[in-house]
Input
Amino acid sequence: MKFRFVHNNINVYDLKRSMDFYKEALGLTETRRIEKEDGSFIIVYLGDGQTSHLLELTWLRDMDRPYNLGDNEIHLAFQADDFEAAHEKHREMGCICFENPSMGIYFIEDPDGYWLEIIPEKR
Output
């Protein structure tokens, strides 16, 4: 029996704001979507155009407040082919939330408070 990664899901409060953020910050674009006929939810899959792994954004109509992530320590990691340019872009966007220069990484925060790790290409 074998398994392979297909996607990661996060719930988002403002779908358009999240999609705009992921496009600007990481270049992710919509690959497909599922919309419930009654309008109760929308699922949007975002891809990087390089791998088959997808980020699934789930929007729930009845969610009436931003998500409380509590002590949620989960994060996704993205490898940047131009780490310095990525860092500058994210600095300009004001979304860098933590830097660890000794490890050579930093994190950005999306509109819902999820942290995304940015790592350089392996040298």
Summary: The longest strand covers residues 29-35.
